[in-house]
Each structure stands twice: as structure tokens, then as C-alpha cells.
Design a protein that fits this description.
By secondary structure, the chain is mainly alpha-helical. The protein folds into two domains: about 80 residues, Rna Polymerase Sigma Factor, Chain: A (Orthogonal Bundle), CATH 1.10.1740; about 60 residues, Winged helix-like DNA-binding domain superfamily/Winged helix DNA-binding domain (Arc Repressor Mutant, subunit A). Helices cover about 70% and strands about 0% of the residues.
Amino acid sequence: MSADLEFENLVNLYYRDLYRFGLSLTGSEADAADLTQETFYIWANKGHQLQKAASVKGWLFTTLHREFLKSCRRRNRFSNESIDEGAEGLPNVPADCAERVDSRTLLRVLGEIAEDFRAPLVLYYMEDLSYKEIADVLALPLGTVQSRIARAKIQLLRRLSETNLPLEQTK
């Protein structure tokens, strides 16, 4: 029960200051409240690791700032662009393309893709490995694996759309 009281006292003591700091960083009341709550959530899980009780305020502000930076990186990595804006670089692929591809054609077209791009694509789709596992297997940085898979998919779609695929025969 005393731990709950300590946590409640900590929230009462620092919530307003942390919220104002979060508001100054984000410019949004909702985001500032989220950052403040996340900071106290992290404190609830990791605060016991702090060795100097006098460092609590600094720890909380540092944690809030780190969470803000993490959210900025996430926002930049997964930017919200409309479908029209993101579709500029994608190939024009007929809707029935996937239905007309047989395994032999797919393997042939896959063989035309450069090895640097083909290996991560095959490991991801055919071997069902995660990006992290592929990065370990190929001794590449995680971002490089993600980039190569994305580029390989575009190359594969382009080649499949350029290839004269036989229409599926109906019986």
C-alpha cells in the first residue's frame, strides 16, 4: 500500500510540470497527456531501478523527452501520406495478374531479380522469417533488409506486369 501512496504522491508532485513540458514539445494537449501517462507508466515499471531518490524529477523529464523523440521517429518512419501520394512509384499491375501467375513463371521472374534483393524477399515470403531473422542470416542492418524487400517487391511486380502471362484457362 505504501508503494501506491508513493506513486500517487509522485504523480501529484510532478504531473503538471511534466504535462507542461510535454505540451511545449508536442503542441497538442492530447499528445502531452499521452506522453505524461507513458512516462508514469514507465516509472511504475522501472522506477525501482533508480538508485538516487533525488534524481526522480530529472529521470521523469528525461524519460518524457525520450518518449517524445521515439514518437517523432515513429511518426517519420510511418508517415501518413494519402494513397495517391504513395502510389506514384508503384508499377501499374493488372488486377488479375496474381491469378494468372503459375509457380514456374514466378520462379523465373524471381530469378531475374538481383541476388541482393531476391534473397531477403525469398527469406521473408517463402521461408517466413522475420526482418530481424533475415538481418541476422544475411548479416545486414535491419533497415537495409526492409528496404531491399520493399524494392524487390516493386521489381517483381514490374516484371510480372511486363511479362505476357497466359490467361488462366477455364474448363
